[in-house]
Amino acid sequence: MASQCVSPLPVKGSRRKHPLLENLLLVLTLISVFIGIGIAFFVRQFQPSQRTIDMIGFPGELFMNVLKSLILPLIAASLVSGLSQLDTRQSGRIGAFAALYYAITMVLAVTTGICLVLLIHPGDPSIKEHFASENDSHPANVSALEKLMDLLRNMFPDNIVQATFQQMETEYVEIRPPTNVSSTTAIVHAVHRHIDGMNTLGMIMFFIALGLVMGHLGREAKPLADLFNALNKDLSSTARMLALYVLTVFIGLMIHLFLTLPAILFVATRKNPYRYMRGLLQAAITALGTASTAASLPVTFRCVEQNNGVHPQYTKFVLPVGALVNMDGTALYEAVASMFIAQMNGMEMTPGAVLTMAFTATLASLGAASMPSAGLVTMLIVLTAVGLPASDVTMIIAVDWLLDRIRTATNVIGDGIGCGFVEAMVERRRRRKLFGSEAENDIGRTEEQLANETQKQKQTECGTVENGKCRRRTISESAKMEEDENGTTEGRRQILI
């Protein structure tokens, strides 16, 4: 079955843009970074007051407020738009194996990032001159179990409107006895209170459910799905990061790209995964240049179908959904970045805190748009959910344009490998079911049916069957059959001519 693929080559007669114009966003970002560094060194010589520093940083504050305001529509648009395409009634097996692949790769990516950031420990409290005041309000004696319970409470809020601007948190409050009582022992009670900040986990779970329901409704939910698709716009931003942090993210992406993903594909296909990845090279280069999974989608289609021979029935389902949902590189990046900022703030890395960051980064990556630097917005989701100051994201600005392209290439290759994984698993299950049904049919046949089939086979092989015995063809019968066959063959040749 032939498929039409969009060629990334320019159309004949069209003028090719100058490389600087094609990468205008990248050029302007680099220029802005160097201008900002130059102004900072220049202003530092005059030892400006805190008020002057606040005035200089005021445009950045407005920019951060705009990014925060985009969190809710971004989650709603991306999750509902992506998950509403999972039509389980028409593509049950493909959807199930695709969801399994997405879940496995995201969990492994987040785990890789957390292990590396704990091993390398790129964050140092000395990097920050002042700790954010937000951390002072969080008591240190809250147990990991309470943190996990708060995570589950926020995942299933009782008021979806309140979840847009508040989240639930457990706090231990000491209640001292009255002054006229001889006992001076204070009683500690766990109090559940709402704090300012969007309940991102609750919003994510709500929009996941909404997207799945819309996927089941099909055409009836198409107008609402079109609305969310229209809201899923391009978001571009940049970030500055320290050298050790960049190294941590880079190593994590390389481990996931060249070890984890090939291992998953090898388990499914039992073939050389690196040969399959070589067929995705052009799509990876396109992703490095555009920093957008959606922009690389036409080239990814061509590489997967033509270079690796995957059937279009799998690519047409897995690739579009994967461009919105399968964000392995983004999940790894957000897990490392959140723990990096936590280390800078001197936050203790308890098992409950690590689990919260890992789970939040996995879910938040589902809300990342397949556009350049959309991971910065979802990074704010993770920081808000774990109680870290969102303003610290400004400390990891300067090289996000580079990491954004690397993690986009990781996402694109992950989508391509996902097609091979889903095809291998579905075809394997189909073969098992086919062979199993044939065996059942053989068992269900009666002895009379088997005898008739045996008699027909003997008649085909040796001529006729008389009294249950095979009678050999005579010489004249064989010659006549050979003559008939030659005549038929000659007739076919004349028709072809």
Automatic annotation (TrEMBL):
<feature type="transmembrane region" description="Helical">
    <location>
        <begin position="279"/>
        <end position="297"/>
    </location>
</feature>
<keyword id="KW-0472">Membrane</keyword>
<feature type="transmembrane region" description="Helical">
    <location>
        <begin position="377"/>
        <end position="403"/>
    </location>
</feature>
<keyword id="KW-0769">Symport</keyword>
<dbReference type="InterPro" id="IPR036458">
    <property type="entry name" value="Na:dicarbo_symporter_sf"/>
</dbReference>
<feature type="region of interest" description="Disordered">
    <location>
        <begin position="475"/>
        <end position="497"/>
    </location>
</feature>
<keyword id="KW-1133">Transmembrane helix</keyword>
<dbReference type="InterPro" id="IPR050746">
    <property type="entry name" value="DAACS"/>
</dbReference>
<dbReference type="Pfam" id="PF00375">
    <property type="entry name" value="SDF"/>
</dbReference>
<protein>
    <recommendedName>
        <fullName>Amino acid transporter</fullName>
    </recommendedName>
</protein>
<dbReference type="GO" id="GO:0016020">
    <property type="term" value="C:membrane"/>
</dbReference>
<feature type="transmembrane region" description="Helical">
    <location>
        <begin position="353"/>
        <end position="371"/>
    </location>
</feature>
<dbReference type="InterPro" id="IPR001991">
    <property type="entry name" value="Na-dicarboxylate_symporter"/>
</dbReference>
<dbReference type="GO" id="GO:0015293">
    <property type="term" value="F:symporter activity"/>
</dbReference>
<comment type="similarity">
    <text>Belongs to the dicarboxylate/amino acid:cation symporter (DAACS) (TC 2.A.23) family.</text>
</comment>
<feature type="transmembrane region" description="Helical">
    <location>
        <begin position="100"/>
        <end position="120"/>
    </location>
</feature>
<keyword id="KW-0812">Transmembrane</keyword>
<feature type="transmembrane region" description="Helical">
    <location>
        <begin position="20"/>
        <end position="42"/>
    </location>
</feature>
<keyword id="KW-0813">Transport</keyword>
<feature type="transmembrane region" description="Helical">
    <location>
        <begin position="242"/>
        <end position="267"/>
    </location>
</feature>
<feature type="transmembrane region" description="Helical">
    <location>
        <begin position="62"/>
        <end position="80"/>
    </location>
</feature>
<feature type="transmembrane region" description="Helical">
    <location>
        <begin position="200"/>
        <end position="218"/>
    </location>
</feature>
